[in-house]
Amino acid sequence: MPIDRRTFLSGTASLAAGAAFSGVPGARRAFAQSAAMTFQPEEGASLRLLRWVPFVTGEEEAWNANTKAFTEATGVEVRIDQESWEDVRPKAAVAANVGSGPDMVMSWFDDPFQYPDKLVDVTDLATKLGEAHGGWYEGLEGYARQDDTFIAVPLCAIGNAVCYRQSHMEKAGFSEFPKDTDGFLELCKALKANGTPAGFPHGKAVGDGNNYAHWLLWSHGGMMVDENSNVTINSPETKAAIEYAKALYETFIPGTESWLDINNNRAFLAEQISLTANGVSLYYAAAKDPAMKEIAEDIRTVNLPIGPVGKSVELHQTSTLSIFKHCKYPQAAKAYLEFMYQSDRMNAWIEGASAYCCQALKEFADNPVWTSNPVHEPYSRASESLRPNGYAGPLGPASAGVMADYVLVDMFAEAVTGQRSPEEAMANAERRARRYYS
Q1: Which SUPFAM superfamilies match (predicted)?
Q2: Cα gap 292→278, rounded to integer Å
Q3: Mean pLDDT by 10-residue block, N- to C-terminus, for the chain (438 residues)?
Q4: What CA–CA distance (Å, rounded) separates 245 from 256?
Q5: pLDDT for position 5
Q6: Can 5-158+316-385 and 161-315+405-436 be said to share one CATH topology?
Q7: Contact predicate 49/386, CB 8 Å
Q8: Residues 154 and 337 sit within 8 Å (Cβ to Cβ)
């Protein structure tokens, strides 16, 4: 598979034209007052956005270029603060509850449901955007809407897929990647025997740890809660998932119980492991480094195997944009978000992200990034196929609390490391979940 560096760089090229247009003298203020802008910034407005640290350089460059274009068009300065994936959640919660700090946050999963009364109602903005751009994907919309009110604007799904070394798989005796969990376990056993093991995070990794834990549970038919929000994690299906996780864990490189989101990337690129699940950022980290050319050309991607439940059931990281009620310039914040979702701006950001961020609005499914490289293909359906973390119950404060408290991630970690028996781990997860679903 050839390295497609053009894909990685194309976002920057696309943005050059947009940035140039926004900088035309005399056009900036006129643009701000045009019909294209539904929301007009308050006089003297300035904004501050808290966002997660990017894993793909082109995504950050595209977002920043669009932000610069907004400032040039409106005169509203936007300060962007970056925090690690793990730190965005607690810092946003503190800002919401003390009523100061960043005006907006780019948050994870159903975090907005932890403090919905601290957020600006953005139903007018989200409705306008949905109508203008083909409608929201249902799963992503669910992460932003409480009943009939949008408490956030859906931003993206960050697709999760298995990344593996083709040559290592073939040396392990497999001509193609296994489609089911039984075959997947056999592959991981063979990889370990060859000294090229797999590795998945069992630590408190916001993205990769949650993705892996939910896939383990759902692929075996387990659920944290049922349709009526009754806690059902203590079940035969969950025990089967734990037993499978224990068998997989035996094939992993040591230390995965402490891994955060960065660790599996580092282990893969250091050739300590040859298989994990990650966003497309892992491929591009290798593709942009000439010293890793051999690794990049050997990387393949595929969706996670299907378990006893008989269908693909995956969690993908989701991100939303919220405006805090303590924001002094809420109209400016809405104008900023409206600007960022304009077709040329959003297409440039998605392309710059090189398949890392899957669109929240259906119009952008036709972005050429999805067909520009075979590596991108498993990530192209993330927004359409994602299952919300609150499954099978509704999203809300309870699901947000269970996710933020790493109840499911900890259950698997406790069991695979032998800290608790499967029965004890399930009972502990049940006890912790009931604190939220009571």
Answers
A1: Periplasmic binding protein-like II (SSF53850)
A2: 18
A3: 34 36 35 63 98 94 98 97 95 97 97 97 98 97 97 97 98 98 98 98 96 98 98 98 98 97 97 97 95 97 97 95 98 98 97 97 97 96 95 96 97 98 98 97
A4: 12
A5: 31
A6: yes
A7: no
A8: no
User: Contact, 433 vs 229, CB < 8 A?
Assistant: no
Q: In what order do the strands lie in the sheet with 275-278?
A: 275-278, 161-165, 299-302
**Of 217, 226, 230, 213, whose CA–CA distance to 434 is shortest?**
230
Please answer whether residues 395 and 112 qualify as being in contact, where contact means their C-beta atoms are separated by less than 8 angstroms.
no
Q: Give the pLDDT confidence of 284-301 residue by residue, as tens digits.
A: 999 999 999 999 999 999
Three-state secondary structure call for residue 321: strand
DSSP symbols for 327-392: -S-HHHHHHHHHHHTSHHHHHHHHHHTTTSSEESBGGGGG-GGGGS-GGGGGGTTHHHH---TTTT
Class of domain 161-315+405-436: alpha beta
How many residues are present in the chain? 438
Structural class in CATH, domain 5-158+316-385: alpha beta
> Greatest CA separation found in the chain?
69
Strands 46-52 and 77-83: parallel
Nearest by Cα to 355 from 138, 158, 161: 158
DSSP 229: -
